[in-house]
């Protein structure tokens, strides 16, 4: 005989168990369907990237008879995936640098210093998050044209930085707000300058927040397509998403499907690597942002 | 090592006056304690000295040097915060060495000072740990160590013991006092706990609503409080106060509380001559209210009848909560007392230690 707790009855407990099991099965089925729907196209793309075009049309689901590594070589050399990749790395790295440097300093100043206009600046940035990004594209296009940087990497970097600053500030603001003021004061008495406090004390403490938002921004900038499409016309300046679309056009007419899928895989790799390495940090960051934002 | 002078210092936050015309001279090597209830301005006074707040009016000197516009790092002070404020991402060693590194002190010298401070505080084996791996008491020591290595002219401490448990607090209190003797430096300490202030300070400054009430040695504050606030704040349990009328003659003077009447000793009467027929506030500490059976011999005892409302056995003494008329007061008596709850009981007021205050100004009548 097990211990019978006061008020507990067998029948409801059995029902509860049954309901629990049914719910568990439903959740499992849903998760598996979701998992397959996400992973299957990736695996299919990977397999297809190793096939010839003939094989692809003859049996789309079959494995390649001989892996066509040459597809990757053609994607890299003939369709300039290397150039697109380099452009993407350059634009993403510089954008990230400016977003993180400006965003963290902005968030730190707004969160930790009480100065006239503090709230106005804060809400100015918050309001930018409420306006759909599309609305800003046309004025931004004219602005960058007048600045003479439309259609250049600098134009992309400026746009990406401006676009990402509000959320970066909002996210880091919550982080900086939670750090105790005494730490700054202690560092000031210890002899640190304001920049010293920011760099030596606040930045290391906000490391997890910085990393999380950096990953978000990386994914956003790396995969950005529309603004690049609207502004970049020179082929040698195209980033990977644009290049891939271009690749599709070229490959489509040339029917070099294998090279096209190889290009997709090359494009996917950095995103996939970032996800794989920082997966925990990413989900953790989402929760923290949700709680503290 | 340096003296500290607050010269008519005022600090306002908008309409709120946090510190109001504070003037106090703190001697070199002194252990001064700012004490008072929450919001009395004690922490603000300390922060003004540290340079973490800007003065609204007045001057602050460290030694002979006016420091009003001197940056915190150039004031040669070190501060221990209530929350310790240890840098969580640094080891204990790096926490202690941080200030010295910023001052470009040679590595060997940093190492010597950190190890020396760690030895003084008994935390040598903790140097590689991170703050989160330490207990409250250990963190407190590291915070102290961080201050010590700087070899400052003045140590500032903002309620550094308030996060420790009661036992550790008593132990650390004694250690801080020892540290003060060993370092021979000026210590300025903030606390809301009058017991801490009494046991540690060479002098205590009592603050209320930003105004300095009295600054004196612990003994003087206890025996001769300058006003009702200080009398009530210093001592635990707090002093009993009664509204009384001064009656009788200059030769035979009484304090009439309505339900009791106690005679004023002849040598205590002169300051009250002007108050004959007037109302004043009479104060008597719980330890000066005795069970007649166990009263010390030779005291000038004035009998007062009261009803026992509550008794609290503390082990070595009993607190009696007594009621006379509608007024409740506390007696701290011998544990062998026969007083029982609900019983009418006569106690003796030791009039040698009576305190009297002007009802309007609340100042001591002397």
SSE layout:
The complex is a heterodimer of chains A (293) and B (366).
Chain A: H1 10-48, H2 53-58, H3 70-77, H4 81-112, H5 118-130, H6 133-147, H7 153-178, H8 181-190, H9 194-205, H10 207-222, H11 226-231, H12 240-254, H13 257-292
Helix pairs in contact in A: 1-13, 3-13, 4-7, 4-10, 4-12, 5-7, 7-10, 8-9, 10-13, 12-13
Chain B: E1 4-13, E2 16-26, E3 31-35, H1 42-50, E4 57-62, E5 65-66, E6 77-80, H2 92-102, H3 107-121, H4 136-149, E7 154-158, H5 166-183, E8 186-191, H6 194-200, E9 203-208, E10 211-216, H7 218-223, H8 228-233, E11 240-248, E12 253-256, E13 261-263, E14 279-284, E15 289-290, E16 301-313, E17 318-324, E18 327-333, E19 344-350, E20 355-358
Parallel strand pairs in B: 3-8, 3-9, 6-7, 7-8
Antiparallel strand pairs in B: 1-2, 1-4, 4-5, 9-10, 11-12, 11-14, 12-13, 14-20, 15-19, 16-17, 16-19, 17-18
Helix pairs in contact in B: 2-3, 2-4, 3-4
Structure description:
The complex is a heterodimer of chains A (293) and B (366). By secondary structure, chain A is mainly alpha-helical. Chain A has a single domain (71-292), classed as MetI-like (MetI-like fold, Orthogonal Bundle), CATH 1.10.3720.10. Helix content of chain A is 80%, strand content 0%. Chain A has helices spanning 10-48, 53-58, 70-77, 81-112, 118-130, 133-147, 153-178, 181-190, 194-205, 207-222, 226-231, 240-254, 257-292. In chain A, helix 4 packs parallel to helix 7 (153-178). Chain B is of the alpha+beta class and 366 residues long. Chain B has 2 domains: 4-233, Rossmann fold (3-Layer(aba) Sandwich); 240-358, Nucleic acid-binding proteins (OB fold (Dihydrolipoamide Acetyltransferase, E2P)), CATH 2.40.50. Chain B has helices at 42-50, 92-102, 107-121, 136-149, 166-183, 194-200, 218-223, 228-233; strands at residues 4-13, 16-26, 31-35, 57-62, 65-66, 77-80, 154-158, 186-191, 203-208, 211-216, 240-248, 253-256, 261-263, 279-284, 289-290, 301-313, 318-324, 327-333, 344-350, 355-358. In chain B, the strands form 4 sheets. A 6-stranded mixed beta sheet of chain B has the order 6-7-8-3-9-10, sandwiched between helices. In chain B, strands 13-12-11-14-20 form a 5-stranded antiparallel beta sheet. A 5-stranded antiparallel beta sheet of chain B has the order 15-19-16-17-18, with no helix packed on it. In chain B, a hairpin with a 2-residue loop joins strand 17 (318-324) and strand 18 (327-333). The interface between A and B is medium-sized, with 16 and 21 residues.
